[in-house]
């Protein structure tokens, strides 16, 4: 299995060697008729007590996770806008909600990634925490730049759907070379963000996030990398389905896709704010 730029999709379990029984072989996102050379039919051990994962499992679990994030985010954003309008400044509760959502989401993501945990409760709590963080942040941006949150949501969904179409049609093939390029780009961006954070805290120099030309270019690059990361995410999910990974791992796939969606939304939100200044 090829590695992914998304750490959630690394070192995942593979299917067993037993037959599918009543469920039949799973079908991937982009699986041609007659199976995939080199993989054979997806299989799972009988003692795992779980059927093989399907595309429907991934779609449903991802939809539920995204729905939780949107619901919590919308409620939090409305509360944040009302609080800012009433007080004219950032109330402590709003700052606490934003930081709390960020920290909880980070901790849970680390638990899921490093423990390779396929868990519906953890994935949903992560989604709720990200909704709290993104909702509070979006509410603040919405007061400053009216309509920006909806534009960012539409942009994020547009990129997601567009990259799914690109993957389904095979317009861009997920090759080992492309995978290495995207993984390298993600690592490079992460290092730049870390150095920029240190520079901002220590010296007040924040070129990647100050809204200037460099910040605009950086956000565009991040959006492009996040968009191409979806191709690797789709490919990894596809391979898990073909290999007959148990259906419970659809929650892990949903978590992985959510991490990319969150990153993409944040970068689009930032870019839109820069362009409004």
TrEMBL record:
Keywords for the protein's UniProt record, in alphabetical order: Membrane, Transmembrane, Transmembrane helix
Short name of one Pfam family: BaxI_1
TM segment ranges: 58-80, 92-114, 121-141, 147-169, 181-205, 211-234, 249-266
InterPro entries per the UniProt record, alphabetical: BaxI_1-like
Region of interest (Disordered), residue spans: 1-50
Name under which the protein is recorded: Bax inhibitor-1/YccA family protein
Species the sequence originates in: Amycolatopsis heterodermiae
